[in-house]
Amino acid sequence: PASDICEWLVGSERCIRDRQGSGAIAAAVMALLSDLTREQNRTKAMAFIGVSFGITFAIAMVLGPIVTHSLGLNALFWMIAALATLGILLTIWVVPNSTNHVLNRESGMVKGSFSKVLAEPRLLKLNFGIMCLHILLMSTFVALPGQLADAGFPAAEHWKVYLATMVIAFAAVVPFIIYAEVKRRMKQVFLFCVGLIIVAEIVLWGAGQHFWELVIGVQLFFLAFNLMEALLPSLISKESPAGYKGTAMGVYSTSQFLGVALGGSLGGWIAGAFGGGSGVLAGAGR
């Protein structure tokens, strides 16, 4: 499978960062989704994919430590390879073929439109924001397992912290999203999230070996992260120039996956050079 070939050729760490950062699979999935959905359902379908990213991350955070502890790190890569193979088979046998490939300026990439989208100051801020958010996500969770271990919480039990905090965060963000949309307080809620992430990173950095302080920091982080993950696509859609929404969402997705790649690499380098807790301190500075 491709993941194991990549690991053998260039090494596991570089392979993981390159595969996550390329965004090639996500781009192809979103393009196919545009072809297979009616225009009136396209926004809802895109939103579902966005939500599924957060759910998938939560599942991975829970299952990763369990699989690694029970079967070893190699088993985790083989599991990824098996899931990738299953995805290929589902795409071939279950997903219908596209027979209606029509360029829609509001859902697809428009040739020659990148300069206009990249030059839009408000979109530039939002794209930079989602990139920093995912840099922060990855760099934080490079450092966090070591902090939990130092606090006396065994690695095999880390999934319990991730599961509990993610479930609470998913439930807690719903009223905030409703408030932001109904009361038109999107900007205020967004700024609240930025402040909450700063507080979360400071709590994580200062927690040291205190387990419950780490849990509080993780809970605050997931609450802010999930809320921003839900708000940013809506803000991108609202701020996009007429006829360029598809291109704007493409640039947004690229920024998102670039942040994942940079966050993992920078988090690992910072933790190795300055110590495990430095990753979250650097995150607070971002």
Automatic annotation (TrEMBL):
Q: PROSITE patterns of this UniProt entry? A: MFS
Q: Where in the cell is it found?
A: Cell inner membrane
Q: Which UniProt keywords apply?
A: Cell inner membrane, Cell membrane, Membrane, Transmembrane, Transmembrane helix, Transport
Q: Does the keyword Ligase apply?
A: no
Where does it primarily localize?
A: membrane
User: Which residue windows are transmembrane per the record?
Assistant: 45-63, 75-95, 126-149, 161-182, 189-208, 214-236, 257-284
InterPro entries linked: MFS (IPR011701), MFS_dom (IPR020846), MFS_trans_sf (IPR036259), MFS_Transporters (IPR050171)
Q: Which CDD domains match?
A: MFS_YajR_like
Query: In which domain of life is the source organism classified?
Result: Bacteria
**Bilayer disposition of the protein:** Multi-pass membrane protein
Keyword ATP-binding present in the record's keywords: the answer is no
Q: Which Pfam families match?
A: MFS_1 (PF07690)
Name of this protein: MFS transporter
The UniProt entry, under Gene3D superfamilies, shows: MFS general substrate transporter like domains
Q: Which GO terms describe its molecular function?
A: transmembrane transporter activity
Q: Which residues form the Major facilitator superfamily (MFS) profile domain?
A: 1-286
GO cellular component terms attached to this protein's record: plasma membrane
